[in-house]
Automatic annotation (TrEMBL), chain A:
This is Hydrogenase expression/formation protein HypE. SUPFAM superfamilies: PurM C-terminal domain-like, PurM N-terminal domain-like. Residues 36-146 form the PurM-like N-terminal domain. Residues 161-307 form the PurM-like C-terminal domain. Pfam families: AIRS, AIRS_C. GO terms for biological process: protein maturation. Belongs to the HypE family. NCBIfam families: hypE. CDD domains: HypE (cd02197).
From TrEMBL, chain B:
It comes from Campylobacter blaseri. This is Hydrogenase formation protein HypD. One of its GO terms (biological process) is protein maturation. Belongs to the HypD family. The keyword Ribonucleoprotein does not apply. The keyword Metal-binding applies. One of its GO terms (molecular function) is carbon monoxide binding. Keywords: Iron, Metal-binding.
Length: 329, 363
């Protein structure tokens, strides 16, 4: 089996081979092939610009891989501010010893998602580090998109309805279950996906949310607490409306996690004017039947998120804190 | 049967809640011994479903909460030795010692690993014959049998590089210690479920008889807990002192005999210093003398000078039911889950941590 060697990051012939024969094979477009020091792009109007780094373990998991996440993640970040994603950059930090097969699989899935979303990967960088200096492969992607309708967190208003585009915590649960230390058998698949089609479908139907945020690391609780703190608003959630798959619930119960704290990679939260909320829900449900209206902004003071359980008891939904560690007994 | 949703059934919960409130005529101080129950009570808001006569007292049954600074300091010392792989269960990483935590020691470059199963330490020891591998064993009767299995495997395989920093504790001893304190006002107990799977329900009969207090062993789901509380209310009203096994789907009268045999084979009862409660005679277990060659405290130098607990912390009073987390002056201010000062804030299953997370204020 052919493996990545330190020399593949050395700037010489091997690196040239890796880039020209493997990376360009998957990220094939005229801008990239210009091989200038920077990609030269034409964009008119307001643009959105975002970056993120991906260090997920394991790099292949049920429902995706680190390549798919790295492209979807940046596409989704652009979509969340109302932009149509256009161009991505990619930076690879590869651990010496990663097999060509694995790298090719990652490139292939990045290429597939980028093509499906009509996004070009126009510049990039590859570094190879000695064994043990990183965990197989780290990927950074940055993206530029054209603003279609600007969506900003600061626009959330009192009485806005809070919607979610699907069930929560699937990606976080898949990753926990797949890690070597646990090795739980599960049919669960990550929700990893691009949100571009969904956001564009909302816009095409003249639905313009007050705010949108994909609930990645920190999960639903992080998004809502950020919104509550930033806008000094109080959000009331109805726990019964938040869909959690049985398997996800089982993993959470087993390890002592809350599904609200676990990551999603293709599920987003929306704050929507009450008059648009039902129509928005219909559109979201076309993509995931578990989409629902989960709560509303009930006050423009207090900066807090309250979760009402099915028995009518309320509690705060806190920011997730510290490292997620499983309980002992 | 759905082992999660059926035990969270809304109608059943409302029925039990109504019955408890109807039958509860006089104040009842219920101690939930286990931190898992504290967590569930706060998470599901059960304290708001049982009426004003029920007062919950959060007991000493969280293995992380009861770990004293001195044991953590010793663990950090062991983990900081050269050529050592130090392993433990995850929650222990953030428990504060006098000046540091295992998590901080890990960030300084020491090889400290969180295990999901104690048995994983066997493979680590096999894979690293040139390193000394130390397992920081903690927990009540729930986790002790697994440590016994690891000890047995280590002996069978003749592993020369695996050692044990044993800090297992028992449930009955701290319960008795609390009840022998005249300042404690407990009328009934919610018995631990996971512990009881191992010990069996019978071990609580003498406690119920000696202190004339009813005990209901319950599962962790809302229906389990409310069913257990209903029984305690009925017993309180009828002045009976029986052990009610609500968690029959897992707990037998005699418990898990095989697990108990394994514990007896490798462990002996010892005294143990409980964080917040002080030294409790017969409160812990340690390896039997003939296995001292596996015992880290005999093989390595574990002596450390530990700082005393903060005077501002009132965890001891909280564990005795004489104070609530809100009564503590440092609660949620200096003492919070990121910077736990007292034992009850350390683990997510501690009383203060549960109050901090789920009920900082009434909403």
């Amino acid at each position: 089996m052919k493996n990545i060697l330190l020399s593949h990051g050395g700037g010489g012939e091997e690196m040239n081979e890796l880039i020209n024969e493997l990376i360009f094979k998957y990220f094939d477009n005229e801008i990239l092939k210009e091989t200038n020091d920077s990609a030269i792009l034409k964009i008119d109007g307001e643009i959105a610009f975002s970056t993120d780094s991906y260090v997920v373990t394991p790099i292949f998991f049920s429902g995706g891989d680190i390549g798919k996440i790295s492209v979807c993640g940046t596409i989704n970040d652009l979509c969340m501010v109302g932009a149509k994603p256009l161009y991505l950059s990619v930076g690879f930090i590869i651990e010496e010893g990663l097999s060509f097969d694995e790298f090719e699989k990652i490139l292939s899935s990045m290429s597939k998602i980028a093509k499906e979303n009509d996004v070009k990967i126009v510049c990039g960088d590859t570094k190879v580090v000695p064994k043990g200096k990183c965990d197989k492969i780290f990927i950074n992607t940055s993206g530029i998109g054209k603003i279609i309708h600007k969506i900003e967190t600061k626009n959330i208003k009192n009485r806005a309805k809070i919607l979610i585009s699907g069930d929560i915590a699937r990606h976080g649960s898949v990753i926990v279950a797949a890690r070597d230390e646990i090795n739980l058998e599960s049919d669960l698949k990550s929700d990893c996906r691009s949100l571009k089609d969904i956001v564009m479908a909302l816009f095409e139907n003249n639905i313009y949310p007050q705010a949108m945020r994909d609930a990645t690391r920190g999960g639903l609780s992080a998004v809502l607490n950020e919104w509550a703190n930033f806008n000094k608003i109080e959000i009331l959630l109805n726990e019964e409306s938040i869909k959690v798959q049985d398997e996800v619930m089982g993993i959470c119960e087993l390890l002592g996690f809350e599904p609200y704290d676990l990551a999603n990679e293709g599920t987003f939260v929306l704050a929507i004017d009450e008059k648009d909320s039902k129509k928005a829900l219909e559109i979201l449900k076309n993509f995931n039947e578990n989409a629902s209206i989960i709560g509303e902004v009930i006050s423009d003071k207090n900066s807090r998120v309250i979760l009402k359980n099915p028995y009518g008891v309320k509690r705060f939904l806190e920011y997730p804190k510290g490292e997620l560690l499983p309980r002992i007994c | 049967m759905d082992l999660i949703n059926d035990f969270r059934d809304k109608d059943l919960i409302f029925s039990l809640s109504n019955l408890i409130q109807k039958k509860s005529k006089k104040p009842l101080n219920i101690m939930e011994i286990c931190g898992g129950h504290t967590h569930s009570i706060m998470k599901f808001g059960i304290h708001k479903l049982v009426g004003k006569n029920i007062n919950f007292i959060h007991g000493p049954g969280c293995p992380v909460c009861v770990m004293p600074r001195s044991k953590i300091d010793a663990a950090i010392k062991l983990a900081s030795m050269d050529n050592v792989i130090f392993t433990t269960l995850a929650d222990m990483l953030r428990v504060p010692g006098s000046t540091s935590t295992l998590q901080k020691a890990r960030s300084q470059g020491h090889d400290i690993r969180a295990l999901y199963s104690p048995l994983d330490v066997i493979q680590i020891a096999k894979d690293n014959p040139d390193k000394k591998v130390i397992f920081f064993a903690i927990g009540f009767e729930t986790t002790t049998p697994m440590t016994a299995v690891v000890v047995e495997k280590a002996i069978e395989l003749g592993l020369k590089n695996l050692f044990f920093h044993i800090n297992h504790v028992t449930v009955p001893a701290p319960v008795r210690a609390l009840m022998n304190d005249e300042n404690v006002k407990i009328d009934a107990f919610l018995g631990p479920s996971h512990v009881s799977v191992i010990t069996g329900s019978k071990i609580y009969e003498s406690i119920a008889n000696d202190y004339k207090k009813p005990i209901a062993i319950s599962g962790f789901e809302p229906v389990d807990i409310l069913d257990g509380i209903l029984n305690l209310v009925e017993q309180g009203e009828n002045e009976t002192y029986k052990v009610y096994n609500q968690y029959k789907r897992a707990v037998k009268l005699e418990g898990n005999l095989k697990a108990k045999e394994l514990i007896d084979k490798y462990f002996k009862i010892c005294d143990f210093e409980f964080r917040g409660l002080g030294n409790i005679p017969n409160g812990g277990v340690d390896l039997k003398d003939k296995y001292s060659y596996l015992n880290a405290k005999f093989v390595f130098d574990c002596n450390v000078e530990s700082k005393k607990e903060s005077k501002a912390c009132i965890c001891g009073e909280i564990l005795k039911g004489r104070a609530k987390p809100y009564d503590c002056k440092i609660f949620s201010k200096v003492c919070n889950p990121q910077n736990p000062i007292g034992s009850c804030m350390v683990s997510s299953e501690g009383a203060c941590a549960a109050y901090y997370k789920y009920a900082k204020e009434n909403v």
